[in-house]
Amino acid sequence: MLRALWNSNLIFSKGCLAAIDGCISAFEGGIDVSLVVLGRPVGDHICSPDVMIEEVMSRSSHPCMNFIGTVPSDEAHVFATMSDVVLLPSKYKSECQPLALISAMVSGCEIITCDTPALRWTLGSYPARFVDVDPIDIGLKLKKVSEEKLVTREDIWLARQRFSKKRFIKEMQDVLWGN
User: Fold this and answer.
1) In whole angstroms, how far apart are CA 113 and each of 49, 137, 164?
2) What is the DSSP string of 97-127?
3) Segments in the chain forming alpha helices (H)
4) Are 17 and 54 in contact (CB under 8 A)?
5) Do β-strands 129-130 and 110-113 pair in parallel, antiparallel, or remain unpaired?
């Protein structure tokens, strides 16, 4: 079984519904995929929080979906460590350094996301599959993930070094006090 994770706020422009529908499409296309959905509904210029939760809940009875909702960040990270792939097909205007992707990288997950400068910067050299915010495209990429893994041990090691506490502290010291 392919264990997929949505680990971000439930925002239309982050691609939440496209990710869910992509998993449903893959499941109905014969891929044994299970999606865990974490996060809270947040409105954007397209969809209010109330409509967002209605849309998510209308899909929550599908056999491939497990809607959990908001959890503390340490619990969300545990879900990432138990997942094969993290989905974040985001076109969210202020998407910068999403913790969902950072957690996915240090956990060694495959990643399906959109090709934006901010997300490319966050990924660095970490491999990812890029999609349009389209359920069919996402479903096809999930099929590819089920057939072939891109992430290597070296990718995971490099991500853990890049996002380590030691490096963060050093960079903050350099910013605050110079090097």
Assistant:
1) 22, 11, 23
2) S-HHHHHHHHHT-EEEE---HHHHHHHTT--
3) 16-28, 49-59, 73-81, 99-107, 117-123, 135-147, 153-162, 165-177
4) no
5) parallel
By CB neighbour count within 10 A (0-12 exposed, 13-18 middle, 19+ buried), where does 121 fall?
exposed
Instruction: Record the pTM.
Output: 0.92
Q: How many residues does the chain have?
A: 179
The position carrying tokens 């138990």 is 82
Write out pLDDT tens, residues 120-161. 999 999 999 999 899 999 999 999 999 999 999 999 999 999
Q: Is 173 exposed, middle or buried (0-12, 13-18, 19+ CB in 10 A)?
A: exposed
Q: For a pLDDT cut of 90, what percent of the chain falls above it?
A: 83
